[in-house]
Design a protein that fits this description.
Blueprint: H1 2-37, E1 43-45, H2 54-62, E2 67-70, E3 85-89, E4 95-97, E5 101-106, E6 113-115, H3 124-134, E7 137-144, E8 149-157, E9 160-161, E10 167-169, E11 173-180, E12 186-188, H4 197-206, E13 210-218, E14 227-231, E15 237-239, E16 243-250
Parallel strand pairs: 2-5, 7-11, 13-16
Antiparallel strand pairs: 1-4, 3-5, 6-10, 8-9, 8-11, 12-15, 14-16
InterPro entries: PASTA_dom
Protein name: PASTA domain, binds beta-lactams
Pfam families: PASTA
Length: about 260
């Protein structure tokens, strides 16, 4: 019986020793080895790399104990040189462990090709948004006589008209030929002297012209509302859409004495 008790006691002591040793090893591993292996508590701040050239990355990141990897998908910005950093992950300012890899997106050497949309007959105010949305730039605007005011008549790239669907490098500048609203048809100004204001306006608009400034002249000899003067004068040659200024009679108010 005593031998059995001695054996059980020895087994218990051995178990306690094993448990103690295991606990000590686990403590030392978690407290010293693991933090040292993972650089626990040692972090670096990710620098802002946007605008850096590809050639600068090795020395700049190497000095900060950081690594990088170039993403296969590139972007394009016409305002930046080729192989310039466009994006990075993690973002600048992130706190990471020493040796962390940063994923880099570079500016492509060649601009992607963009299909030219059809801008002809579009209003100029809409064209800027259309071009911007697809990555093209509005260039020079040339006004020519046409009854369509601010309507695009031609779309040009490097001096040549380009059709819808023509492929251009992203960031290309598109020049526009736009109507000035005056037209190129030559008209004779009708004689409006002696007409009333309503009839004169009807004739002006019907002749392809438009009403200009209205001036009122006080007179006792001409019926009120009668045209007494016009500029340009009757018979003058003008373009479609030109304004006609009118002087209209009004009766002077009589004073009571």
């Amino acid at each position: 019986m005593s031998k059995l008790k001695d054996s059980l006691k020895k087994v218990g002591i051995h178990l306690l020793l094993i448990l103690g040793a295991t606990t000590l090893i686990a403590f030392l591993f978690l407290k010293f080895f693991l933090p040292s292996y993972t650089n626990h508590g040692q972090t670096v701040s990710i620098p802002d790399l946007e605008g850096f050239s590809y050639e600068e990355l090795d020395s700049y990141l190497g000095a900060r104990n950081l690594n990088y990897e170039i993403e296969l998908d590139s972007g394009f910005n016409a305002d930046l040189p080729p192989l310039t950093v466009l994006k990075q992950l993690p973002r600048a300012g992130s706190q990471v462990k020493s040796g962390r890899k940063i994923y880099i997106t570079l500016n492509s050497k060649n601009a992607p090709m963009i299909k030219m949309p059809n801008l002809v007959n579009s209003q100029l105010k809409n064209v800027q948004e259309i071009l911007s949305n697809i990555g093209l730039v509005r260039g020079e605007i040339k006004y020519v006589p046409d009854i369509g005011i601010n309507v695009v008549l031609e779309q040009k790239y490097r001096g040549r008209n380009i059709p819808e669907g023509f492929e251009l490098p992203k960031g290309s500048q598109i020049d526009l030929v736009v109507g000035d609203g005056l037209g190129n048809q030559i008209l004779d100004v009708p004689n409006l002297i002696g007409m009333d204001e309503i009839d004169a306006e009807f004739l002006i608009i019907g002749s392809g012209l438009r009403m200009g400034r209205l001036n009122y002249v006080t007179t006792d000899t001409v019926p009120q509302g009668t045209i007494v003067r016009q500029i340009p004068p009757s018979g003058a040659e003008v373009k479609t859409g030109e304004p006609i200024d009118l002087w209209i009679s009004e009766i002077a108010k009589q004073r009571d004495f």
